[in-house]
Amino acid sequence: MKSATGSLRLDTDSDVAMARVLVAMANKSSADTARRVARASKQQAIDGRWHGGRASYGYRTGDSTLYVVPERAALVREASERVRAGESVYRIVNRWNQAGWVTMHGVRWSEKALKQILRNPVLKGVRTYRPVLPGGSWATAPEVVVEGNWTPILDADAWDETVAVLDARRARKNGGRTYSSKWVMPFSGLIRCGKCGHKMRKQGPNYICGHHTRGGCARSINAVAIQAFIEDAVLAAFSGPTSQAPPPARPGKRR
Question: Which stretches make up the Recombinase domain (predicted)?
Answer without folding.
Answer: 56-172
